[in-house]
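Hi everyone,

Forwarding the result from last night's run.
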Amino acid sequence: MEILSIIPARGGSKGIPKKNMVALCGQPLIKYTFDAAKKSRLITRSILSTDDGDFARYGKENGIEALMRPEELAGDRTPMKDVINYHLDALKKNGYIPDIFILLQPTSPLRTERHIDEALQGLIDDKEADATVSVVEVPHEYLPMKLMELKEDGSLKFFRSDGEKYTTRQELPHLYARNGAAVYAVYTESYRKTGSLYGTRCIPYFMKPEESVDIDTSFDLFLAESILRDFSRWKSS
């Protein structure tokens, strides 16, 4: 089975300049994703999608095939699906159509080859699913029924009209959020038909909070570095 990993890394970033190359525990952020993709047992080909020559050179130095994307696909608001479609179309013209592709965003440095292979294997083993996405459980204090809205008069009201009735954790549902997401994987044929990374039946791949840091701010970097420096403790928990 051909499984393609797509690693998107545009040069521009407003929050953290050149974010994908920012240092994390002594090495560029993007290298964690490069290493995870290369160590995966199931990924058969990896490409780096970028508009930045420095990123492309660094990818090649690390054994990752770099494919340039046009400037119009490198903006802040460029839909990721447009980037994916561009590369899938280009690869198809060269005779390459993967059975599955997996999107690995460099902003998830705590996602390892184990997570990648478990998510992919789960998708392959589930004969009814055509996609999987990594998720983390939402802490109970952030569930919709616990949220409160600040009104114009300065008072607080429950965001949901039934919020006041939930008084214990046992009454609350278990809800999940995409953790970046660290992993999106979908059968290519299904993606082409639906235009969705979630296909027609998407199954979850559960990750722990300490594995789910998504780098967007300087605090996220601090948090990821703190976890990585004491990773042996997290692995044994």
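The longest helix spans residues 80-93.

Cheers,
N.
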